[in-house]
Structures are given as structure tokens and as C-alpha cells.
UniProtKB/TrEMBL annotation:
<dbReference type="GO" id="GO:0046856">
    <property type="term" value="P:phosphatidylinositol dephosphorylation"/>
</dbReference>
<feature type="transmembrane region" description="Helical">
    <location>
        <begin position="107"/>
        <end position="129"/>
    </location>
</feature>
<dbReference type="GO" id="GO:0043812">
    <property type="term" value="F:phosphatidylinositol-4-phosphate phosphatase activity"/>
</dbReference>
<keyword id="KW-0472">Membrane</keyword>
<dbReference type="GO" id="GO:0005783">
    <property type="term" value="C:endoplasmic reticulum"/>
</dbReference>
<feature type="transmembrane region" description="Helical">
    <location>
        <begin position="135"/>
        <end position="155"/>
    </location>
</feature>
<keyword id="KW-0812">Transmembrane</keyword>
<protein>
    <submittedName>
        <fullName>SAC1 phosphatase</fullName>
    </submittedName>
</protein>
<keyword id="KW-1133">Transmembrane helix</keyword>
Amino acid sequence: QRLGVLHVGQRIEEQADFEKIYKNAWADNANACAKQYAGTGALKTDYTRQRTQWGLIMDGWNSLIRYYKNNFSDGFRQDAIDLFLGNYSVDEVESASPLHVKKDWKFLALPIIMVVAFSMCIICLLMAGDTWTETLAYVLFWGSASFGTFAIILYNGKDFVDAPKLVQKEKMD
């Protein structure tokens, strides 16, 4: 009322159009910030607008994408932020780049083997063989192959994570 937006006696709760515009602006702002920070839209923005089943599904999808990006593809982003903010200083004497790390064969082979084995297990379940013993043998083989590669990946989990490679100044001092 002091700013002249509302008349004397008017309440903000009575202005449905303004409330809708205001909430949508905040939800759009949350999406923009979340895309910069996490790589996906904000979670639960449909609470601000109107909660729907589709919003719940999109929150689950965005959470899965965030989990993947955070663990397997965001190390470079943190390196860029550290370099930009001056948390890492480039050593002019050192010729080798600290960003280039040689990856072992397992980083590509094991996830591919796991996906192929899991897919074959599902295909064997859906396309049953002539006898149930034949189907069971195939499912057990491909299931154990997918479980085995998953166990190896879990055991070597820290090697698969895309961690930042630059060291912060405070840690070097």
C-alpha cells in the first residue's frame, strides 16, 4: 500500500493474477539458478505453480540426472569454477596439464559390459526359450554377469567418479 501497488484495504491474497505471476517468476528464477548450479531445472517448482503427477515424475528424472552429473561428469565444472575464482593458480614452470588424467580400460569397458549383460538378462526374460531350464540358464548367466560387473564397479567406485583435478590454494599452502 505504501508503494502504491495496492489500494487501501486491499490484501495481497485477494490478487490471484498477481500471485500467479509472482509465483511463476520465482519458479522461473529457481529453474535458471538450478540449471547453472546443478545442470537441471529446480526440483519442486510445481509446488509453487500447482503440484501435478507430471511434476513428481520430472522431479524424479531431474534427481537421477543430477546424481549422474554430480558423480560422473561435473569434475570439470568445479575445476573451471576454481580456476575462475582464483582458488587454483597455474604453475608456469610445470608443462604437464593437471587436468589430463589417463583413464584405464575399465572406465569404458565395465559399464558397457554391465549394460549389455543387464539388457541380455531382460531380453532372455521377455523372450523365453523352448524350455524353462534353458530360459533359467540364460537369465542366471546374464544376471550374474551384470551383477558381477556392477560389484566390480562398486568396489572401484572412487575411480569412476569424475572428481575435480585442481588443488585449491589453501590445500597447497
